[in-house]
Amino acid sequence: MSNLGFIDLRSDTVTLPTEEMRRAMAEAEVGDDVYGEDPTIQRLERLAAEIMGKEAALFVPSGTMGNQVSVMTHTQRGDEVIMEAESHVYYYEVGAMAVLSGVQARPVPGRRGVMDPDDVRRAIRERGNIHFPRTSLVVLENTHNRGGGKVLPLDNVKAISDIAHSNGLSVHMDGARIFNAQVASGIPASEYAKYADSVMFCLSKGLCAPVGSMVVGRKDFIDRARKNRKMLGGGMRQAGILAAAGIIALTKMVDRLQEDHDNAKLLAVKLQELGYGVNPEEVETNMVVVDVTPTGKDVHTVEKELKTRGVLANANSPKTLRLVTHYGVTSDDAIKAVEVFADIIRQ
Asked: Which residues carry this modification: N6-(pyridoxal phosphate)lysine (predicted)?
């Protein structure tokens, strides 16, 4: 349960740092990172690169900045970027690709966030036609947020990567929750990362660090990305205070994500038994999409009734709520939330 006294299922962004993280932050050895003098940042970046099997890494304040720095580094103004039609970089990042990088989005509809490789192939613009933008980048999202925490199948990632690279395109992976994908699939994050030229992943969310994300890739890419981070206002000074929590996130908090997945599955099974529109088979990680139509109430009414009973959740469509389990939600909390949902559907 959160420190607000609610069972907070809105997002795994609400996680609080562990006591070990707080102690590490208080004791962190720091320096000016813009000058390259923060030893804790350096340790975190080496660790992130090693875990992902990449040459180098860059600490950024947020996942959105990590995605946008990556897009900016991979593209030129006037280019076109292919991504799934409901991907975070297209849906939730305030049109930043157009504003910051001057590039155009080419959304490709997928199924729960998974694009068909043939659709990606068809979306690549013909070279040499002066009417067309240059397609330069494909963005994949793993796990997929609006896909309900869907894990991208590795063969799908590989197929799209092969198509992109054979056509001279780069691949960026929005891996905000890539460790959820690792825990759910048993496939190391580095194996997914192998098929992408750059990967962004969050240290916050399920890993519980209070601030920060990482971008990993080739050293020359990260060198250019570092300059773009500075341009966007992401050059930080004694940021080792934040990096100290990130190191613990990566070394201590990954395996415990299974607990979140188990609690999400518990929610899905129990809510389906109550008559809500839920498919437990689609719950792969820590997200549950719940159709509230069987209550006879609109989604915002259900959202408000949940809150008055101590449960926070967000509507993600006119009919559905998205429930997200995380470090602050126990199995007991999940059962209590189910009891609240039971009261609402029985009214």
From this structure: 205
What tokens does 183 get? 């825990």
Q: For 34-80, write each residue's pLDDT tens digit.
A: 999 999 999 999 999 999 999 999 999 999 999 999 999 999 999 99
Answer whether 225's CB lies under 8 Å from 215's CB: yes
- Rounded-to-integer distance, Cα 173 and Cα 121, Å: 17
Q: How far apart are CA 62 and CA 212, in angstroms?
A: 5
Q: What is the 3-state secondary structure (H, E, C) of 57-69?
A: EEEECCHHHHHHH
Span(s) in the chain for CATH 3.40.640.10: 19-252
Specify whether the CB–CB gap between 171 and 160 falls below 8 A. Answer: yes
Three-state SS string over 292-332 comes to: CHHHCCCHHHHHHHHHHCCEECEECCCCEEEEECCCCCCHH
Q: Which fold has domain 7-14+256-346?
A: Aspartate Aminotransferase, domain 1 (3.90.1150)
